[in-house]
Amino acid sequence: MEFVIIGAGRVGLRTARVLREEGHDVTVIEADPATAERGREAGFDVIEGDGSRESVLESAGVDAADAVGALTGDLNVNFAACLIGKHHGCRTVMRIDEDYRESIYQQYADEVDEVVYPERLGAIGAKNALLGGSLTAIADVAQNLQILRITITEESPIRGYTLSEVALPSESRILAFGKGDEPMGIPLPDDSIEAGDSLAVLADFSELAAVRQLLVGEKPATAVAAGGA
């Protein structure tokens, strides 16, 4: 796939590097000459210019791009770049900083495909390090929702059950399931759950403790499955 990244700062270059390592084509736009040069030294094709201008985005190949990632620290530049990208048929991802009010977030979120908070993603990494063990936060997908990857252990209360028997809290859902080292895929009701299997779960923040208790078993569980004890 082909991507245009606006911003060669910490967030932009790290994102571009991950995409490149996965075999995608990446062009970076950066307004600051010194920062643009650092991007070139890192091996990227960097267009020096204002990412909020359509002519600059066109010179970076927005017409052929699959997606535009507007990842500068300037919200106005990011929003303008996303509007241009949307006009050219691209998927748009916009960086927004954590300190903006919810009303501002909603104003912009309605116009782009995805909003990312670098500070929140950094907090996920720190939380994973603190939690350790078999539960990993993958992403915050909304203000109150998080996706978790859970590895089933010998102590897990749901080990030995099938997916159809697992009763999660009301606002939580199993999104994917994988046996052992196999990639995760669509969860099927008759899939049996054994140690080493993996689950991807969507959970409301208010239910994280209950989900952890039910699936990881680090606290005594009072009910682990429909019709079970």
From TrEMBL:
Record field: transmembrane: none
Keywords for this protein: Ion transport, NAD, Potassium, Potassium transport, Transport
Alphabetical list of PROSITE patterns matching this protein: RCK_C, RCK_N
Cellular component, GO annotation: plasma membrane
MF terms (GO), sorted A to Z: potassium ion transmembrane transporter activity
InterPro entries found in the cross-reference section: K_uptake_TrkA, NAD(P)-bd_dom_sf, RCK_C, RCK_C_sf, RCK_N, Trk_Ktr_HKT_K-transport
Function: Part of a potassium transport system.
Name recorded for this polypeptide: TrkA family potassium uptake protein
